[in-house]
Amino acid sequence: MTFRNMKIFTAVFQYSSITIGTHTLPSLVLHCQELPPGLTIKAFVSCSVKVEESILSNTIDFGMIENHPEHPELCAVPFMQDELCMVVAPSHEFAGREKATLKELAQYPFLVREKGSAGRDILDACFAIRQLAVKPSLESASIQAIVSSVTAGLGVAVLPCLLIEKDLKEGTVIRVPFAHPLKRELNIVYHRSKYLMKNMKLFMQLCMENDLQSSEFQV
């Protein structure tokens, strides 16, 4: 990417969902040091619903979320892919299984993200399609709280693979592959009527041109 003779001295105000804000945003902002001097990234982290609301109210320039927005005034550009994975305690009877289904998962105490998070919305939709009734035994905005509860044997969970790589490597929790993988695209989202200035286009270009899942791109 070349920025020769470009003069940009404005800030990009962007909101990201919790998964992106935790895993991708820190290294991405750090990588922005390659961008022209004077370009400032001002970032905020919240759930996907809040991100979309802020874009619609023109509070921010654009956002990065884990789902595809439904509002007709929002445009989405995919920039990377993630997968939701089932995790259980090492002592759980599912540990070591080659695969499992959502129907089997629904029979156990279920630990979930808070309503309004993209991962929770996707999961709720998957259960609804299969007409499965699930009553969560724990709801939390904290991924670590859910992981700790799974480790303690309080239930099972479905979480973004990006956020639990370390826990999986350490064996704190065990991944049980889904019979049908739950993959999703992470999107850059902006208002349809938003004028995209050069600084915004550069940041979005950086998101799409770099392998944000590469270990070399992590802080």
Number of domains: 2
CATH architecture classification name of the largest domain: 3-Layer(aba) Sandwich
Terminal Cα span: 21 Å
CATH topology-level name of the largest domain? D-Maltodextrin-Binding Protein, domain 2
Strand content: 25-35%
Return the structural class: alpha/beta
Rounded to an integer in angstroms, the radius of gyration calculated over CA atoms is 19 Å
**CATH homologous superfamily classification of the largest domain:** Periplasmic binding protein-like II
- Beta-strand segment tally: 9
SS field, number of helical segments = 8
Low-confidence stretches are 1-11, 212-219
- The ordered H/E elements are EHHEHEEHEHEHEHEEH
Shape: elongated
> Strand count, sense and closure of the main sheet?
9 strands, mixed
Overall pLDDT: 80
Pick out its properties:
single chain, 219 residues, alpha/beta, D-Maltodextrin-Binding Protein, domain 2, 2 domains, nine-stranded mixed beta sheet, disordered C terminus
Question: Would you mind describing this structure in some detail?
Answer:
By secondary structure, the protein is α/β, with parallel strands linked by helices. 30% of the residues lie in helices and 26% in strands. The protein has helices spanning 18-23, 25-31, 48-56, 102-105, 118-129, 143-151, 165-170, 198-209; strands at 11-16, 40-45, 62-65, 74-88, 110-113, 136-140, 156-160, 174-176, 182-191. Strands 1, 2, 3, 4, 5, 6, 7, 8 and 9 form a 9-stranded mixed sheet that branches.
